[in-house]
Amino acid sequence: MNKIKLIYEGKAKKVYETDDSTLAIFEYKDSLTAFNAQKKDTMQGKGRLTNLISATFLKLLQDKGIPTHFVKLLDDNHQLVKRLKIIPLEVVVRNTSTGSLCKRLGVEEGLDLVPPLVEFYLKNDELGDPLVTEDHIRAFGFASKPQVEKMKELSLKVNEILHKFLSKKGIKLVDFKLEFGMDDEGNIFVADEISPDTCRFWDMTSKERLDKDRFRKDLGNVLEAYEEIWRRIADWEKSCSAEYRANILVYLKEGVLDTQGKAVLSSLYSLGYDEVKNVRVGKYIKITLTSPSQEDAASRIKEMCEDLLVNDLIEEYSFELEEI
Ligand code: ADP
Ligand code: MG
């Protein structure tokens, strides 16, 4: 897949057109911005970390059944994504009070928000991404009601998945921002990025900030914090994998002569089981395997059947998969 033309250069990424008009390449930059780009800096190696971290979270969500734009990682600074029409809203989910929420409403920092808050902001740099209500969204047509409902539902599911995953890594998911886009058929996907640039991560015990707040508040060690997040999640596939059991049935295709079946039938007759009409003999294969997801396990089993277990000239198969 090749970069053909730069479509857009944003604050954190460059977006390129590819040979395939349905796909785009993201190049993650080493730049850091805050307060609507009034504060800027570059840090060598930052683009690599946000690219790898974002790819990991998007893949994890995809494995859990959330539609995302992620296609694959290309290298340290690039990933391939579905090219979408971005809905001009940013959806923020908050589990703990901090940042603009505290400033705006004068509430204390660090309060647990149960159930989590979902907020919509208009994606408009000139206006400083203002908070909007669902009535504003409807009145000015920023998104349709079903789209708003879908974005909310997906955002809360994303929150559940990431919150659970990060807790096991000693990271508290304080809040995060999502963007959504649509394909030509109007299907909605989680788009853009999920990284320490777009989330707040606190170390569960020390409460140390492991995200862009280090840059916003001049706390130092920005890159080190991003590295720490990557270090804790890099082995996610191993730590997420579960054990599955596949029960595979292999049987002869209709019309294929079944000599074993015939032999069993004649033995049954000789023992006096005259009511038997027909016998077909197949195979039952039980396989246990580890895999990052049920979807992945199913595709591996399918490959095994096609490569070895089933002779597709004369046999057919079906299988059931269960997590153990
Ligand atoms: P910005 O400075 O506007 O935040 P970024 O540096 O984050 O920009 O670059 C990414 C841009 O690409 C954003 O405008 C984002 O909305 C957009 N985008 C995100 N995902 C997709 C996608 N799948 N297809 C097309 N555009 C996307
Ligand atoms: Mg952005």
Name a few traits of the molecule.
324 residues; alpha+beta; 6-stranded antiparallel sheet; 5-stranded antiparallel sheet; 9 helices; binds adenosine-5'-diphosphate; binds magnesium ion
Characterization of this structure:
- The protein is an alpha+beta fold.
- Helix content is 32%, strand content 34%.
- It has nine helices and 16 strands.
- It has helices at 46-63, 99-105, 134-139, 145-167, 213-216, 222-233, 236-240, 259-270, 294-309, and strands at 5-9, 13-17, 23-28, 31-34, 39-42, 70-75, 78-82, 85-96, 112-122, 131-132, 171-182, 188-191, 199-203, 242-252, 283-291, 315-323.
- Strands 8, 9, 10, 11, 12 and 13 form a six-stranded antiparallel sheet that branches.
- Helix 1 (46-63) runs parallel beside helix 6 (222-233).
- The mean pLDDT is 96.
- Adenosine-5'-diphosphate is lined by residues 8, 10-13, 15, 24, 69, 81-84, 86, 179, 181, 191-192.
Protein topology:
Elements: E1 5-9, E2 13-17, E3 23-28, E4 31-34, E5 39-42, H1 46-63, E6 70-75, E7 78-82, E8 85-96, H2 99-105, E9 112-122, E10 131-132, H3 134-139, H4 145-167, E11 171-182, E12 188-191, E13 199-203, H5 213-216, H6 222-233, H7 236-240, E14 242-252, H8 259-270, E15 283-291, H9 294-309, E16 315-323
Antiparallel strand pairs: 1-2, 2-3, 3-7, 4-5, 6-7, 8-9, 8-11, 9-10, 11-12, 11-13, 14-15, 14-16
Adenosine-5'-diphosphate binds at residues 8, 10-13, 15, 24, 69, 81-84, 86, 179, 181, 191-192.
